[in-house]
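Objective 1.3, modelling of assemblies. Example input:
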Amino acid sequence: MTDFVNEPFANFADRAQRERFVNALEAVRRTLGGRHPLLLGGQDVQTGRWLRSENPARPEQIIGEVAQAGSAEAARAVDVAAKAQARWAATPVEERVALLRRAAGFLRARRDWFAALEVFEVGKSWREADADVVEAIDYLNYYSLNMLQLAGGEPLAQRPGEANRYLYAPRGVSVVIAPWNFPLAILAGMSSAALAAGNPVILKPAEQSPVIACHFTKLLHEAGVPVDVAQYLPGLGADAGQALVAHPQVRVILFTGSKAVGLGILKAASEVAPGERFIKQVIVEMGGKNALIVDEDADLDAAVGGILTSAFSYQGQKCSAASRLIAHRAVYPRLLERLAAALDRLVVGDPVSPGCDLGPLIDPDAVKRVSEAIVSGSRAATLAYRYPDSRLPATGYFVGPVLFTGVKPDSPLAQDELFGPVLCGFQVESFAEAIALANDSAYGLTGGVYSRSPSHIQQAVERLEVGNLYINRPITGAIVGRQPFGGIKLSGLGTKAGGPDYLLSLLWPKTVCENTARHGMPLE
Amino acid sequence: MNELEARVQAIGRTLYDLAKREHAQLTTWNRWTKQVLAWCLADPALKNRVLRFIDCLPSLRTPSAVVQHVREYFPTVGVRLPKALRLGVSLSRGGLLTAPAVAAVVHQIVEQVARQFIAGARPEDALAVIQRLAPRGVLVSCDLLGEQVTSEAEADEYARRYRTFIAAIGRGCHLSIKPSSLSSRFDPLDFDGSLERAAARLRPIAELAVQTGAALTLDMEQYEYRDLTLALAKRLLEEPGLGERVQLGVVIQAYLRDAEAVTEELIAWLHAHHRQLAVRLVKGAYWDYEIARATQLGWPIPVYLDKRQTDQTFERVTVRLLSARDAARTEIASHNVRSISHAMAQMELLEIPKEQVEFQLLYGMGDVIQAAVSRLGYPVRIYTPVGELIPGMAYLVRRILENTANESFLRQDLWEHESIEQLLSEPVPAHAVGGTGPGGP
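Predicted structure (tokens):
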């Protein structure tokens, strides 16, 4: 077996790469506006209702319209998947993962196209979009190789006349409920893991990013994944989503999204419906209110750059994004002054242009939520920097970066996940206080420290209640196989996407003990 | 041995003898620099701690923070710290010696090491160096150390510093410009925009340079900025009224695998556009960074892993530049005796007058070689960093690393152990002689 190798990121210092990307943007632009039916067991299914996906930077530009599934279509998809389950589970692991690796190859061949589509559909900058596609390719390859390792089971202790085996069996029909913020990576990650493990999947993308999900599902089919093993079912969470979660034949739910929806799914999935013979396995990855600590001995050049990336890349719409900046008073004033100046250099605009650093928020709801938080925050806290509205594009869902200081630690601004380009600065007297403040959160996803004190770094490692801790670097951008990703507390259940034990959540361990001794016969 | 190689060896021996004689009279290192280099050479683990501690020191604002960090970076008593410091740390723990006293010793040490490699913070300090070296016929090129530019306001401030410096030094000022300091949005992804922003700040600097008779060199930083930096130079050379008058230089880093191709392309461009540039040829200073970055992002490593390949490329580019004198004025920036001798031998072979090429050495590191090269009648220029301690730290750490690296000329203890044959041997990469060294392509 070959070792896992991460897909290289695009090198935009290379002129040829920049030209390829410009061409891909042009190619995608020409395909915008099509209609996409549901893909259920080889049938193109229309429902008479259409979900419209629009470019958040130019809402008049329609990315595509997708058929909107309801509970009836959800039931139909589960039915198809349930029928396909035995056949997919019986397909040898080598064959299953060969298809996924083939899909990874197809994605690699079309990576600029997929990335360009993300620029239009969810407003990612070139680099962010490219990183999302790279991560998707990584998941396909990583879980494939991982599954090959697990296929033989784990060794157990043996005794004469007794053969013990520990095997992993697929769990069954899996529902993937994916977010829009990493519209390809997380969708591909959750579905490739389930597929590698031998589970048929139903892909329910977010309402805001259904078109790229459609192309990904087709790519899986193109690579040879059977049409009843990977189905495409866009719809509203309250409708199709709820129907899937409650369905008695669904065995696994993989969800990444908000805390409210995640906790709702956990609750709903724990209800055993009449006739249901399995307890649903649920993987939920939820939000974060992630803190970045800057110690008194930190390298401020590095910290300013790291904060910009952590808090504002993709407009802060990442569950890993930093939304709290906790700095020692010795560096706080200088850091905030430099940070505010650095924020002002950013350019907010249509991410199709390489000259834009930040794109739009995903939709009008996001604009409303973030804008209201800024307004109410301005009353309770001090607005240290606000990107001038006059520099924002006239149309599109844009909110410029904002920096608050003097935020009360128990206020909504300090506690609630906002998912926008808003950072709250806190000044502390000591490193111990910084850690205590960082831990004062219901979430525990990512965290970071800029420090050059070995003892403080050790304290952070021991005491910060986070799933992913980053030291002297940005706190976003986890890489498959190198920084397995997932949170604790109300951020998740401790599963790690892109980590060595993720697949175990999608498999039943089965113990087999066989008496190999026969009366009067020699032991084998 | 061919004619060229024979000349290289002969010149090398002459340089060696001259340097050896100079060495008897010149004390190269000041006391603490000698001591710090000795610690670093004695123990790689300690070297790592020393470098990291020095990097961190300027950010420590209170004496107690200094003491705390000394304890954390040098926890074992076995470490051969200076007695004053070792004693100080343990006494301060018992309350016998105050933290301020310990911090003062530490600052004294690091500041003295910094003074070895950094001229000072003000333009006056640079002027003093220029005036000190002038009688020996040695020229100076200045580099303004500064924090990384994170906002456009900081880029404006940096540009203002460049102009103030040029005005203060006046005629004969020779200044290096860091392209990344010209804009906080210097990113090859937005190639044209970055070029536009950097050029907008570079233009007034260049105009002032033309007025005062100053020369500018666009420094070469990370590989990612290389094409952007060369494009910036070309942009300036194409400016009507400015391009034909500005004295501009660029840098070629020989450790880059595509260094020769880029040299070729640059020379062709200069010929096609009837423009001239000074070209500073260096080995390259971001080796570890380039390897780490490329490996993390999954990119081909842009630098040679085998130092001999770098040395070989250095010689090839030397020849290429020397044979394109109508377009490029060659500046050989290396402390390596072999590289220097090779350039001189090539010049003899091509019958190039000595004054048409410059040998450049680093401030505080090349006194011995500098004297020898000058003695042979070649122009010498000293690359002199000017700046405060904090932004100077990264530079300082690089110099210490260089002086304690295995293959460092200074480390090779020229005068005692290393044989002159080895020092002057032709750089032959491992694979070229059938080996499978770490530097395969």
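Confidence is low (pLDDT under 50) at residues 433-441 of chain B.
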